[in-house]
Amino acid sequence: MRAKGVNLNNVLYNTLLSMCADIGFIDEAVELLDDMKSCTDCKPNNWTYSSTITIFSCCVKVLEAETVLKEMVESSFQPNIYVLILLIQCYGKADRTDDVMTTFDRIIALGITPDERT
Questions:
Q1: pTM for the whole structure
Q2: Label partner for 3 (CA 20 to 30 A): which of 32, 46, 60, 98?
Q3: Distances 103 to 11, 32, 60, 66 between C-alpha atoms, Å
Q4: How far apart are CA 78 and CA 74, in angstroms?
Q5: Is 92 exposed, middle or buried (0-12, 13-18, 19+ CB in 10 A)?
Q6: Are 93 and 60 in contact (CB under 8 A)?
Q7: What is the CA 10 to chain-centroid distance, rounded?
Q8: Sequential pLDDT tens for the chain (118 residues)
Q9: Comparing C-alpha atoms, which of 86, 80, 88 is closest to residue 113?
Q10: Angle formed at CA 84 by CA 117 and CA 15, multiple of 5 degrees
């Protein structure tokens, strides 16, 4: 894309990350995220972090999902109900029941009303 002169911006990066999440391209998503972090014109945002957590959660890559969540919070973005449910599912698949409960408690502490998915 760069060779063709396409200007990469947040919308394009995030669209590509969402696509990677949909089809399970983990390595490509990590490469995109790293590329975005080094970009001078745009930086990761809430959508970026949510898409990346989606990828890692669906593949039960717990440590990677937790790392991205930490980066998200350190970048002043708060996880929403969707992101936290993804983590609950990831922890559940990894048989990490204590982490499921901790994440549920975090939902309550953030003032988010649990829904039927929670």
A1: 0.85
A2: 46
A3: 29, 27, 16, 11
A4: 9
A5: middle
A6: yes
A7: 15
A8: 777 877 788 898 999 998 988 888 899 999 989 988 888 888 899 999 998 999 999 889 999 999 999 999 999 999 999 999 999 999 999 999 999 999 999 999 999 988 888 8
A9: 80
A10: 100
Helix 46-58 vs helix 26-38: crossing angle, to nearest 10:
160
Residue 102, both tokens = 């901790």
- Number of residues written out for the chain: 118
> In which residue are the tokens 């894309």 written?
1
- All residues at 6 or more sequence positions from 97 whose CB lies less than 8 Å from its CB, including other chains: 91
Distance CA 99, CA 60 (A): 13
